[in-house]
Amino acid sequence: MSSQTALQTAEELLKPYAMEMIKQEEDFRLDVLLSPDQLHEAVKALHDARWGYLSAIAGVDHPAPVIGEDANASGTVQEKGKESQVEVLYVFCQGAAVLVLRLKVPYTHAELPTVCDLIPSATLYERELMEMFGVEIHGTPVKDRLLLPDEWPEGVYPLRKATIIGTTRSGSEE
Amino acid sequence: METRKSSEKFVVPIGPQHPALKEPGHFEFTVDGEIVTGASVRLGYVHRGIEKGAEDRTWTQNIYLLERICGICSHVHATAYVLGVEKLAGVSAPPRAQAIRTVTAELERIHSHLLWLGVAAHEGGFDTLFMYSWRDRETVMDLLELISGNRVHYSTNVLGGVKYDLDTEKMDAIRRGLDFLEERTHHYMKVVTTDETFLARTRGVGLMTREQAEALGAVGPTARASSVRRDIRIDAPYAAYPDFPVKLITDDGGDLLARFVVRLKELFESYRVIRAILDQMPEGELTTRVPRRIPAGEVISRVEAPRGELFYYIKSNGGEKPERIKVRTPSLCNWGTVVSVAVGHKLADMPMLLAGIDPCFSCNDRMVRINRGQGAQFWSWENLRQYGIEYYR
After folding, report:
1. Which residues of A touch B43 (CB under 8 A)?
2. Is B252 exposed, middle or buried (0-12, 13-18, 19+ CB in 10 A)?
3. Which of A123, B23, B327, B352 has the fewest CB neighbours in a 10 Å radius?
4. Which fold has domain B50-334?
5. Within 10 A of B321 (CB to CB), how many other CB atoms are there?
6. A165, A167, A169: best mutation site toward chain B, by most B Cβ within 10 Å?
7. Tell me, what's the pLDDT at B380?
8. How far apart are CA B221 and CA B186, in angstroms?
9. What stretches of chain A show up as alpha helix (H) in DSSP?
10. What are the boundaries of each domain within chain B?
11. Superfamily grouping for domain A3-120
């Protein structure tokens, strides 16, 4: 299967679930915007069709734009109508074809279903996402700390933009 | 990650210090007599905060930071990064630069595979093979030092090209080195496939079918030894690989022996490709200009590291620093295979199984651990030497 046809197959598979699809022909890349409740179904569709493999799960933090100068890590004054979000990218690859499932979850409701029942190897990626971005993965088989030290405080997610290493670990010495 | 079945069984903790390898990781093997019935892994002991740190450094500074993710495959990290940034900036390095990148990458693969061969032999109790392969590995280390002046962090890449040129003299030195290594590799191939004692430790051990390898997300030689046809150099060629294609090496054995065979065969392929590039080295510039601010956008950059697919996600918001860099290293993918395959094997096979995936802890432990409050200290060579003498007195 050439990369071009692989992408077409992926497009057809994901059509029922996608909110939007963005194609970049030259890079053999297809970005599919999903709502979090469609994630499991979409991954299942890919899995059942044996489309590619899960190459990585990447988190990207999108803090709401801050207005006002008294901004600090915990009590920021935020622009109305904009909410801090974490964007999660599930990157699937087949040959040169790259398929990115993009989901956005707000801080206040940062939850996603696990895909480990379909792709067992996702467990490490999901654990990393939980630790680094504070996205709760429902149903993931193991929730133990993977990378952060045992004494790392709860609720501090290092890869969120608001976390500035060296100052947020209040109460524990560096 | 856990496949532990009962809490009543005896648990053997291995690590975090020196779990068969000279890097930290913690494993818990549940055993029933000699047989492993469950395994779990805890990583993060060399977690250094690199992804977070990358957000606070300029595009150029990050080359040096990302190269330090790994002390074995440093060049391939920088390559994945610069290829991605160049794509975002809409430039591409000149052909000669791409060729030199590829030569360095393949030399790095040779050094990495030979290093692995030694470590794996050592874990199998075959220390003679370990010493010979590491002696021979010095040949390729010397070549890398000849090109770049460094043995570990070659710093060959810059944004838009490479720093070092290869002149005729260096190319001849590389050719001579490869001739020697090729001869040695034939010998190693013979040893690992015919030595009965060693075969007893590898044949049929750690068997992983193609279906398992795919389900567990294995990459690189570990996957290819279970006949998974996946190699980024072939699937999505980058740098000079479109002009100098490599052959896909797979084996359908699926056991430790197959992992030896695949890596050794890949060495021959590396020798061939390097020679091909040297014979047809493109002429021209070494660098092209890259703007200081990288246009907003995001890119996914994938390269084939010695251990398998290395994944970079790079996002720019148009500034002098990246917005986000995500690194997914091949070792992380391969852990799942060890923990699953371990079950049913003897405890004594664990070091070999661990070494079999060629794990690299520094690679998969990255992001957050910053030590402060300890004054930086500079040690001269003489200081270090003195310290060593005192320490072992």
Report:
1. 146-147
2. exposed
3. B23
4. Cytochrome-c3 Hydrogenase; chain B (1.10.645)
5. 17
6. A165
7. 60
8. 19
9. 3-14, 39-48, 122-133
10. 50-334
11. NADH:ubiquinone oxidoreductase Nqo5 subunit (3.30.460.80)
Q: Give dist(CA B347, CA B182) in Å, integer.
A: 35
- Show the tokens assigned to A75: 């009590």
Q: Do A147 and B335 touch (CB under 8 A)?
A: no
Nearest CB to A55 within list B2, B309, B373: B309
Domain ranges across chain A: 3-120
Distance CA B28, CA B22 (A): 18
Residue of A nearest to B371 (CA): A174
Which residue's entry shows tokens 């002696």?
B135
Question: Tens digit of pLDDT for each residue in A84-141?
Answer: 899 999 999 988 899 999 999 999 988 999 998 988 888 888 998 998 999 999 988 8
* The length of chain A, given as a count of residues: 174
On chain B, the residues whose CB falls within 8 A of the CB of A163 are 52
A53 and B CB contact within 8 Å? yes
Pick A147's closest partner by Cβ from B44, B302, B335.
B44
User: How many angstroms separate the CA atoms of A68 and A52, rounded?
Assistant: 46
